[in-house]
């Protein structure tokens, strides 16, 4: 049992899914409002809608009235909790709790002679707009800078690859020109050999004609 010298530790901060003070308060408020609403649907008011049944079978109508209130309460509670889950109400209210707690800590650490903060509603529209847009712009600027660096790196790699391919093409063209020159010289030599062979053939024909 904790004593005055050893006080109990403060309660742990609620997790994202554990309702904090405000989330618990809104659930309690809704449950109370729903209970008051259901209580307002008295049997007399319900029976006034069905006078014939109320006169002929009042016990059956009372059972129907009780079942109606039970089903209506269950349906309303289910819809309320569904909305809380779909809209992340508990998480958002817990974030608000953290924000308020952090603000209180900052306020407690502020020196007494520090200038009073400027109320937001007294700021000009440009300052309020800049306060909301500057963080977004900085984030977008960081993303754009990262993309720009990526594009520049890709362009540098592409330019290097193009230079290498150009050098390779120039080497291939040089080798091809050498082959063409070799073929041209080979053609000239073949042509000279053909002329010599043709001359030898004529001489051989002349010798054969003499016989």
TrEMBL record:
<dbReference type="GO" id="GO:0007059">
    <property type="term" value="P:chromosome segregation"/>
</dbReference>
<keyword id="KW-0132">Cell division</keyword>
<keyword id="KW-0131">Cell cycle</keyword>
<protein>
    <submittedName>
        <fullName>Nnf1-domain-containing protein</fullName>
    </submittedName>
</protein>
<keyword id="KW-0539">Nucleus</keyword>
<keyword id="KW-0158">Chromosome</keyword>
<dbReference type="Pfam" id="PF03980">
    <property type="entry name" value="Nnf1"/>
</dbReference>
<dbReference type="InterPro" id="IPR007128">
    <property type="entry name" value="PMF1/Nnf1"/>
</dbReference>
<dbReference type="GO" id="GO:0000444">
    <property type="term" value="C:MIS12/MIND type complex"/>
</dbReference>
<dbReference type="GO" id="GO:0051301">
    <property type="term" value="P:cell division"/>
</dbReference>
<keyword id="KW-0498">Mitosis</keyword>
<dbReference type="GO" id="GO:0005634">
    <property type="term" value="C:nucleus"/>
</dbReference>
<keyword id="KW-0995">Kinetochore</keyword>
<keyword id="KW-0137">Centromere</keyword>
